[in-house]
Protein 1
Amino acid sequence: MIRILLLLLSSTPQALLFDVGIRPSIRLTGGGPLTARKWDNLEVDAPIPDHDENFDYTTGLVPSGGEGYRCGYISIVGAPNMGKSTILNSLILEKLCVENRRPQTTRHAILGILTTDKCQLCLTDTPGVIGDPAYKLQEGMMEAVKGAFREAEALLVVTDLFSTPIDDDRLWKQVQQYNKPMIVAINKIDLVDKVNPNVEENKIEGRTVTVEEAVAKWRRLLPQALAIIPMSAGNGSNDVGVVALRKILLGGPDVPAAIRDLGRPIPGMFKPGVKTITDEEAKELLPLSPPMYEDDDLTDRNDRFFCSEIIRSSLLELMKKEIPYCCEVRIDSYREPRPRDAKKLVRMAATILVDRESQKPIVIGRGGQMIKAVGIHARKKLEEFLKNQVHLDLSVKVEKDWRRSEKKLKALGYLN
């Protein structure tokens, strides 16, 4: 097995070391959920914590928030490459989910949490809807979408300026018949100035090329939607559409002011006869409930999961065609800095799994150049995410037909 070790420190030149041999044993850490302040890190053989008197074991809820507190799950659904992950990151004010311009970047349902003193939003980013899954992995991805759909107290349907539809007739029918609160986000409206309405692809029936057309179409498709909000989530958390959506989901304060900031009202943004949304109306989106998570939790996933996602996103960004879609990243070991360590590094080893023997040399590259580039790219993003210097050990392994094997997909966490 060829392995490549990358150690890049801001104060030292890049060091590259090829190694052949047995991977050292490293204790697994980083198993707890990501919080707004820190990662909870328990070693695998750590003692089980004592009974927590502040936790209600009969309901599973943290008893805080007080009277009138609201909490609920909001599932984000839409076609691939609509910017669902970008919207979640912008709403919770954290770069939690991997963002990439290539479709089908998200393979899992990923929870993002935004907590205030009056409300806790539990937003679930889901894989883009695929109408005809080609293999078992995509079937598992669609099960994740359906599961998030069933558990939601409210639905956020994401489309784009072109009104890209949800390409699954059965799921789309469920969306149309959804009888709980729903909001539609029309993302990527910044493309309006770059669109030529006269080219053939923009003359396809059902395709919209202006914000007004898109809003009108989605009001016809989903007349029950509380609001249809145009936005450009790629502009970040302060985009006026993102701010308006966040205010609506949180129930204020001053939702009408955030809606006014969107500019001249577009017919169809609200139900017939409705000109805006009040704070009280917005609060009806989520039920009265104590919070489900601690105040500083950002997600229920641990650091190992997100490190895997970050490395996989580097494969998507640096490799062409279909190769990245045949890859999975498994974190084999993860160790955070210890007090006695001379260099305060997060040390991790990861394996890039490929579908075919012929794909392995492509991922490694001539003389190891491709895997070196992937490691450098991933390490920089890992350090930004973990806020710590990182020692990354990457290897490549053939896991034949892993995308089609139910047993292998269960081991990788895609199937129950």
Note: The longest helix spans residues 369-386.
Protein 2
Amino acid sequence: MKKLNALPQRYKGVVQFIYIALSSSHFFASTTTNAFVTTTTTAHFPAIQRTLPLFSEATQSSSEELRDIANRQPPPQNFYELQSDSAKAAQLAIDDGQKLLEVEFPPLPSNILEMDDLGAYQVAQANLNLAMEFARKFANLDTFKVAILLPDEAEKNIAVENSGGTDKPYPGITISSLRSSDPDDKRIFKPEQLFLNLIGGGSGGLVKPLPNTKMYIIIVASAQELPDVEELNIADPDAIIVFYNLKLDILRGDLGAPAFPAKDFHDRFLSRVKPVYYLRTRQYSRNTPNPPFMVNFQGCLFRSYPGEFQTLLDTGDGRAYRRVSGSKIRPPLGSFKEELTQNLQLEGVIKDEGKFLGFLRTGYKTTTWWEEERVEADDGWRS
């Protein structure tokens, strides 16, 4: 922290915030009430413990042995485990020939993410720091260069300024942007780009591959900026593109809305993105006719390539999870919630209300449009 004193005053708050957040020993630490703590009659559930070696420390065994390890791998307990495991999962996918990878997890501990005064720039800075650490697992100055790409030059300049004033923070790693304007064009406002954005006409040639770059890590991009990533993939098809903490599940839901890409963008491009390291937590509440009248529970959908998608139930302290099921196919969020609910019913935490009341709770449709079977879509996103 000695270097902190040398920073300009306006940066110290951001750096201190990220330093404190990433120094948190427990990745899932939370101040909220989690599963089963609302009742004193709930039986104790044995949690998944990391009795296995870290996935990043697993020996280079056969593909079946690696898959078995990944199928039984618990979620990380801290950011060190997370970085090691996510990089290893990505490397295994790359070894299998995958080029479009999704890495998704909460960028800050849950108690930090729940803070009311948490700003978008603080989350973006956390993602940038994590992306740089992720890139260091792969970067080599001579043979494997990695670029961390923000949507445009303005966001790139902010990121560079907040990262020590250099766009090359480590050997073999560059911070850049998806769109790079003509250096001779000094205009601040470019109306033709606004027009192209509104009609979905592409970048107008502003998306260009970086020389000798083997991997691009995309951060903080919105649904409107994802077509630029497709354009980059077309321009540099041999490069690896990592969709890093973009919340693609949410961005897919924006497709088809006015001024957003059409739904066929998922079929054509996003459906090809392989979730190699995926960790999303969900919190639910269920009212009951008997005390305690409200049961709060949460679960985690977790996948570390080449393993299964695991449905995990929080055992009550926000740090330990118990495996409910595993599937080679990514379950829709509605099915994920139903698996958790059925498990709670088997354990007697909540009662089965019957098919009619269950239908009233869930409705006739439990999947979003992009989770359904689509003829033109690839199965990469769900496998």
Note: The longest strand covers residues 274-287.
Protein 3
Amino acid sequence: MPRSEIQPAPEPMPETASTLPTTPDRQAVESVVAADGDDDDEDEDFFALLNKHHAKEEQAALEWSPKDEEEPHNPDHDAITGPQRWGLRFEYLLASPEGSQAFEDFLGTILCRENMQFWNDAAALHTCSEEEVRPTCQQLYEKYFAENCPARLNVNAPSREQVDKAFASDGTPGRHSFVKAQKEVYGLMKSDSYTKFLDSEIYQKCLAGTYVSKSAKVRSTCRAALGRRLPSLPTSAPSNTDTRRHTVLIKENQEGQKRNARTQQGWQQLQQVLAFTTCIFQAVVSYQKASQKEFVGCRVQPGANSSTR
């Protein structure tokens, strides 16, 4: 090739944010940067943009509200009231005092009443005064998150870490200290418990207007939701039978967890025994094969005996 046709090698480009490989995270970061319209972000590297994106996600999580999960308004639902309306959307169920109480009673039958109780208590945290924020947060923590608390909430690690961080020695509990736990509990109730509630006997009684809540906090009926007059009944504290039944359910749940733990431990021990037995069997087989090879090598050939004679 003539010397004049040889093209000079291109100079290597410096690795900047624009030359890094495109990943799903980077696409998300670039979309956030483009939406913000901040020109200063163009000079930052990928990891700085990624950290800024995570910080914005964290801030958006703290600003979460149940209204963010609501579907658009449907005018056809306005004329529907009572238990029939509860079956249309989960938001309608929570907005009704009778519906939320019936839903809480149903959660009690599947041993997760604390989800609804936490939801109501945490919602009150956003409406109390500034002087009441710290004491209210402490009450929520001692009731749902502390060790040996009476109604320990079953949430994932990130939600619990947010609460533990706020109540650490250098933390400051506030109105948003339980937002992740609220969002998780809301999603769990809406996606799982709500569908089970609609198939439950309690909801069928609500539709028939025959269900009466036995809760000591609020005495509600679906007949009241349907606009029917009911005779006034005195409210009373929970009976000893209800208290004993609740205690029995807790003990049965604890015993079930212990049985599951023992079963899992037994399976682990069985697997260890099987693995040990397999190793011994393989060693025996290997030893037999080696013995057979030595025996064949030491065996005298018939031809060799005749030649020596």
Note: The chain has a mean pLDDT of 74.
